[in-house]
Design a protein that fits this description.
Two copies of one chain form a homodimer. By secondary structure, chain A is α+β, with helices and mostly antiparallel strands. Chain A folds into two domains: 114 residues, Protein Yojf, Chain: A (Distorted Sandwich); 153 residues, Trna Endonuclease, Chain: A, domain 1. Chain A is built from four helices and 16 strands. The radius of gyration of chain A is 27 Å and the shape is elongated. In chain A, 41% of the residues are buried. The structure holds a DNA duplex.
Chain lengths: 290, 290
DNA sequence: GCCTAGGTCCCGTGT
DNA sequence: ACACGGGGCCTAGGC
């Protein structure tokens, strides 16, 4: 039996169970009527109510209600849990330093307390991240633009690391910013920062191009891109189920790879002139690290 | 008794309990050996292990291990929970649409299943937010700069809403961006976007000033600010316990309000020239919306 | 420890 | 619905 539960314990019984569970490194759930106070980076307080407190052996504390994905109050990993009986209530206090933060949960009554031994893998492999998108594009750089040659990923600049850096067929440097989902103004600004940084650093006469690669872009972001002569290429993230126009299931082979549309990019700079109707291409990311 | 628990139930017993709990709108916890698969905006899978599944009546599903604050897998509010016995395992499936997402948790064995009726307030009042900082500054605009006159908050522009907009003693428009914590490059870019937008819209001859108000700024962000002629004012967020130099406890009265330093801001633009050692001022935000 | 940026971000607010 | 930005964001990766 790896899970022990007590119902309606006295505060003192609950305290004993808690101390034992802390000792064993168990995952602990406490359900009961409680108040919650937090003070640290901000401050908050929560009146009486039935809630679930989750205590992890790594120092995490989570207070959950019946709504929302995020806990109504919490303490990050690395905190220290302490339990005590004060003024007829069970007080569970979770504290950490740098920054100094304290979470206090005062239980008027504990309806249930459980302790469980957790085990097993906790690392999961996620597909569909921006890194997957980057790898897929490294395999098929022509999706960005026919003849695009990748030179570096995460290239450092004064303004931060560039997702993907390369050169176009004319030999002009190209800064590529990747996003796994629809982008807003901040992504446009981010790309603009990087382009400006490369222009300052390389200082070549050749103008630096900036291309935002994402599934789609908001109107405002599109305008901001245009203002700075930046470009946009629509690409669905790998493993996305969403499709724009009866897309086929993801194959390892991308269908119209070299049908990159003959419209030459205009060197003038008022780019982003791709037709709006252009459907986003879907990428697969079967091969890791090629 | 508002919490019911069954230990080591058969899958069929667990299923009955689950259906009842769904019906009652209870908060449910299931602890046992399980695998987890997710497919939707991304995709992931997680091998066998002992974990805690939390199901909320609002459709939220959370899979927690013994580490980290964030669940290892989850489903947002609005999803629909379904339970079934398949291939000798208890399958809990949480599904939502737009975007289409499915979370499957397959329990090989259920060690414990609990259902509890949650109640009580779930809204908490947090102090120390950016809005509190804004209100404090509206009460004491001289903290930003002697003679600064606030004219609008959340003023809309082509680039998005400006936190605080006003005028300096020379009548020049001032864009203020507020941050409750140390800022990096993105905040500098954000401010720059807003300043450019105001310059385009108002189109006055008077140059638009931009001031970033935050507790502190990174080197990179400071350089970016300087490049665009933007300024920085150090202000601690209200209710912060952190102090730079034996700060007093937060009073409603701010101590050296009008000791704003006589160094006139240079109209040239290579600003941000405040001495680095300048200690941040601490604000209180006692009065809401005065 | 700090810095930088991603995230199945979540979440509230406005349109 | 989408859009936009805040968050006690959290978390990972580098330095």
């Amino acid at each position: 039996m790896t899970a022990t539960t007590v119902h309606e314990p006295t505060h003192r019984e609950a305290l004993w169970e808690l101390e034992d569970a802390f000792e064993r490194g168990d995952l602990i759930t406490i359900f009961g009527r409680c108040t919650v106070e937090y003070d640290g980076r901000a401050a908050s307080s929560l009146g009486l109510g039935r809630r679930l407190l989750l205590l992890k052996p790594d120092g995490t504390a989570l207070v959950h209600t019946d709504e929302k994905q995020k806990p109504v109050n919490w303490q990050p990993p690395g905190s220290e849990h302490h339990a005590a009986v004060r003024d007829g209530r069970l007080r569970v206090r979770s504290v950490r330093t740098s920054p100094d933060e304290t979470l206090d949960v005062h239980f008027e009554t504990v309806e249930q307390l459980s302790a469980m031994a957790v085990s097993g893998r906790r690392d999961l492999s996620v597909t569909g991240s921006e890194a997957d998108l980057r790898n897929a594009l490294l395999d098929r750089p022509a999706v960005i633009e026919s003849g695009f040659e990748p030179l570096a990923t995460e290239r450092p600049t004064d303004a931060g690391p560039i997702d993907l850096f390369g050169r176009d067929t004319d030999g002009r440097p190209v800064v590529v910013e990747l996003k796994r989902r629809r982008v807003g103004p901040s992504a446009a600004s981010q790309l603009q920062r990087y382009v400006a940084a490369i222009e300052r650093e390389d200082g070549d006469d050749a103008a630096v191009r900036g291309i935002l690669v994402a599934p789609s872009v908001t109107d405002r972001a599109r305008r901001l891109l245009a203002e700075h002569g930046l470009e946009f290429v629509a690409v669905e993230p790998p493993s996305s189920t969403g499709d724009a126009g009866g897309s086929t299931t993801l194959d390892t082979e991308l269908s119209q790879t070299d049908a990159v549309d003959d419209s030459a990019h205009d060197p003038a700079g008022d780019a982003t002139g791709d037709d709006d109707g252009e459907p986003a291409r879907t990428l697969s990311a079967d091969e890791e690290s090629h």
